[in-house]
Design brief:
The protein is globular and about 55 Å long. With 268 residues, the chain is an alpha/beta fold. Helix 4 links the parallel strand 3 and strand 4.
Length: 268
């Protein structure tokens, strides 16, 4: 039987989150323009950590993230709109996301102010253009994160990765760090309430998470991969998939015959 919080607890949590979002918008709009990169990263880290505390989400960290100032590309499986905040609460980074995220209410604007680069998937060469910007920033010591599945899942599977999103690791010579992420309820079962898949809305997932006494977000930084060890970005993508699936004890992604990516149509 699933244990849930009281109505008052849920209302209290959601009210705090709403106020926290308003604070984030105010900070990003009025304070960020006056801060350097380090200052914005520190504000983002503390804001993300505060959001997780308000939803009773505890991050269980395994492995070590790249140190600040070390260029790297993080490649993570994608479960929830919370994923970037879980990562940022541990290691502030910039993200590469699909342009649809920019249209999410409040969250989309905040991610844009934090330096996220958005890929317009309907424009054929836009990924290559964004990748060039990422490579330039990584050569200056910045760390980026991407969700190469291209869509979210409920956390029970790992989908095939879009190899084109990992090209900056090849072009910059920086390591690719696979990141395995999942959400668990207090009893250790998979927390599908945190998943932003199917027809769910952001507010719907917020309500579902607020109803749980606590959530554990497992965040694993796995052994870095390098382009020099792989002849093609597809090989690098497969190696990252395998590392994440193994860390989460999930089956390897299945691909459709005759395709290079085999990615099923994105629902998100």
């Amino acid at each position: 039987m699933l244990i849930t919080t009281s109505f008052l607890t849920r209302a209290f949590r959601l009210t705090r989150v709403a106020l926290h979002l308003a604070r984030g918008v105010t900070t990003a709009g009025l304070i960020f323009p006056w801060l350097d990169k380090a200052g914005r990263a520190d504000h983002g880290r503390r804001w993300a950590a505060g959001l997780l505390r308000m939803l009773a989400i505890r991050v269980q960290l395994k492995g070590a993230p790249p140190p600040p100032g070390a260029a790297a590309l993080l490649a993570a499986n994608h479960v929830s709109w919370l994923d970037p905040f879980v990562i940022n609460a541990v290691r502030p980074v910039r993200f590469i996301a699909k342009s649809e995220v920019r249209r999410w209410p409040v969250i989309g604007w905040l991610t844009a102010q934090a330096g996220t680069l958005f890929v317009v998937r309907s424009r054929r060469h836009h990924t290559a253009h964004v990748n060039q910007s990422v490579v330039g920033a990584m050569r200056d010591g910045e760390t980026f994160a991407v969700f190469p599945e291209g869509t979210t899942t409920d956390g029970s599977v790992v989908l095939p990765f879009h190899a084109s999103l990992l090209q900056p690791a090849f072009d910059s010579g920086a390591p690719l760090v696979p990141v395995a992420l999942r959400y668990l309820r207090a009893d250790g079962s998979l927390c599908t309430e945190a998943a932003y898949d199917g027809d769910k809305t952001i507010f719907g997932t917020l309500r579902a998470m607020a109803a749980l006494p606590s959530i554990r977000a497992e965040l694993q930084f796995l052994a870095p991969l390098t382009g020099t060890d792989h002849q093609h970005r597809r090989e690098l993508a497969r190696a990252a998939e395998q590392a994440i699936a193994s860390a989460l004890r999930l089956a390897l992604p299945r691909r459709h015959a005759g395709t290079t990516a085999g990615l099923r149509a994105a629902a998100r």
